[in-house]
Specification:
about 270 residues; mainly alpha; 14 helices; about 70% helix; globular
């Protein structure tokens, strides 16, 4: 029997150690006493911080204090990015069950939430058309043609829902990193692909049991590592080489570890009152 593609990635150099280190930090977070009674508060704060960091990675770098204070974000373009990220991160609970059965449907829904106000209403949740410009970091280069995007997304969805994968020992973090990287590489929508990709990563981490309560903040980890490092790691993934893919997964593992520390900081703050 041929090795599953995700299993092959899990065996690349340095991946197992990076995943184990990140997993230990997430487990430390999940054992915090605050989560016994106040996990919903930590989850809500994690979602807020995750939305803030995800928007910042797309150039809308607003402070948490400003986001908490605002009730209207529509007065400037960067505010629309923040508002879209907040909508995305507020709807995770409703999307989890569908994600496990129909990930492409959820990706479309994530785009509807993230891109409202940034794209024409008729383009929300719709794959980009041939020749349609794609908003996003120019350093990622030109995205694949829509026909290739469709084929690769269908392949990804098939891998995600197959029983052989669901029952496998492929670490959740590896699956999350590959989903994240693939959406970034394909840029299936005309805008807001970054927010969608990072939301998909978090959905995998939650649904596959690494962080079932959604209390870590991996997006904050990516932000702390820096936008240049994030783009560089994404380009390595896009190279398609084993070394490039491994580097991307290790980068995502580092971000997850930092995000676990962010979740611990939230727990400590709540404990102090």
């Amino acid at each position: 029997m041929a090795q599953h593609p995700f299993s092959a990635v899990a065996g690349l150099p340095g991946v197992a150690d990076a995943v184990a280190e990140a997993r230990a930090l997430v487990d430390q977070l999940l054992s915090h006493r605050v989560l016994r009674r106040r996990s919903s508060q930590v989850s809500a704060e994690s979602a807020l911080r995750g939305a803030r960091a995800s928007a910042a990675l797309d150039g809308a770098d607003w402070s948490l204090e400003e986001i908490r204070r605002r009730t209207n974000f529509a007065n400037e373009p960067s505010g629309l990015v923040v508002e879209g990220a907040l909508r995305v991160f507020a709807e995770f609970g409703q999307l989890l069950r569908t994600w496990e059965k129909a990930p492409l449907q959820v990706l479309a829904r994530l785009h509807v939430l993230a891109a409202a106000g940034l794209a024409e209403p008729e383009r929300l949740g719709r794959p980009r058309l041939p020749g349609e410009p794609v908003a996003g970091p120019p350093e990622l280069g030109e995205p694949p043609a829509p026909v290739e995007v469709s084929a690769r997304l269908n392949q990804l969805a098939d891998l995600l829902v197959r029983d052989t994968l669901r029952d496998s020992a492929v670490p959740a973090l590896v699956v999350a990193a590959l989903v994240h990287g693939e959406v970034l590489a394909l840029r299936p929508f005309p805008c807001a692909n970054g927010v969608v990709a990072r939301a998909a990563q978090r959905l995998v981490l939650i649904s596959r049991g690494l962080d079932p309560k959604g209390v870590s903040v991996p997006e904050a980890g990516h932000y702390e590592l820096g936008t240049e490092a994030y783009a560089a790691a994404a380009r390595q993934y896009m190279s398609g080489t084993p070394d490039g893919v491994a580097a991307w997964v290790r980068h995502c593992a580092a971000a997850v570890g930092i995000g676990a520390r962010e979740g611990l900081a939230v727990c400590e703050a709540l404990q102090r009152g």
